[in-house]
Amino acid sequence: MNVAIVWFRGLLRLHDNPVLNWASSNDEIDSIVPIFIIEESDDVGGRPLLGDNRMRFLYESIVDLDKGLREQYDSTILVFSGDPRHVIASIVHCLDSDVKVLLTDYRSEPKMRVGITEIENLLKPSGVETMVFPAASTILDIEEVIGSETYKNPKSSRDIDAIMREYLDEGPDGYLVGEPLSKPVEVRSDSRTLEILTGHTGPSDYYIEMDEVRRRASENGGQSYFPGGESEALERLRCKVIDVPDFVNTFSKPDTFSTNENQNPLEPTTTGLSPYISTGCLSVRLVWTEVARANLNSEHTKPPQSLLGQLMFREMFYLLSRSVENWDDDIDNSNCKRIEWGSYDEALMTAWESGMTGYPYIDAMMRQLDTTGWMHHLGRHAVSCFLTRGQLWQNWKHGRDVFERKLIDSDWALNNGNWLWLAGVAPFSMPYYRVYNPCPDSRSSLNVETRDAAFIRHWVPELSTFPSRYIFEPHLAPIEIQRSSKCIIGEDYPEPIVNRNEARKRNMALFKESLENHVD
DNA sequence: GGATCCGTTGTAGCT
DNA sequence: AAGCTACAACGGATC
Asked: Which pTM value belongs to this model?
């Protein structure tokens, strides 16, 4: 019996899955054992790594994957919880000498790279080969690109464009990223092999039954607008990209809004595909292909603001996160300027995280994040600038941690990259003195109903009857208006936590001072 | 080698 | 109402 363990890590899908395809098309493999390993808690202990929405999304994605494997292939996925080294060693041990190969997809995070090398070395003595499939969750082969002698860290859209041009052929619209793989024809999973692993003699310390995974998926909120899983991902790709070429061809990221007019306020103005891409429920290559198809023979926006531009920046951050040492830190990171941030301020951090800063636009965004696990990109700009160089002068790493725990599309490379950018500390950042206005809609002063005002009313119900003219800065409303809107500032909704203009000016000066103090 | 240009998405105030 | 200007002023690449 030749067993292949297919370890699902960054690809929670059946389509465009080179790992599963390799295993299913290899005649020497008699039995495929699909597995997923959940690491539930931090090494340090303390608070859970993933917030409720992230956990729920993950469990739903696994349930969907299992459903696909059962219905289409009469297979299943086995879920384990624990340290992957221990789990995999235990599986190999239980199956005696049958396991021939461990297959998985490439992951670029330092922790994962170290982990897979350790596992490879661990399995070698037992004659088990480890195969890692590159370029599965990115378009470029990250190791190949950064290993090239000519590689230089990209820091603009031009740079990443040049890199992609070097590795990919140009098609009629954008680069040719290769045809996404179809689903495997068959997945041979020998039932005895699976029974050994799910029975009492198997690695029962780690095994979690699918019923338990289902229970956890429904237990963790179910609040969110985004259900996890490949089925949902493909459906969303269809209705937000394939069926709406006009939307794709006119897409311009900076011009999108926090919310839709006359639509479900939970439906993003962007594609909302990010949670599916970050978990690997959806192939980024498939998204690229479908966007390029919509672009074909039609006028369309171009990178960097177009949809393909967004995917190109994703590649850029993946490259940087792999080539820049200490990508997730503010010291010994060549892409992070040394800034003397204020010390951790629990009151400020709590107000920010819980959406109680007294700035409705910021608070609406943070409450949306907490409830649904998602936030519009421009909102992420606003709240992260507000927390760091804009108003609160807190280290970007504190905000990064909150995003990492709560965002269902959290991605180590992208999350750190975006915080570096927005805190103004990276070589690819905007100049530090370009500070986002936390009360951004100037039209509101004309008492015009705006999309952002509708967004605030939805997420900050205290202000639901506040007139548009004052809704971005309700503390400026005369007391009669506060009374008639049934929202007294300082009682029903907080006073602003800081004076935004004073804080901005002070922080700009502090930022400049830090730059002068730390000239290399 | 100093000047100039440029950077995915700024703000405020004016017409 | 889109488009202009002034603001404040980084840092690397290019010429």
From this structure: 0.95
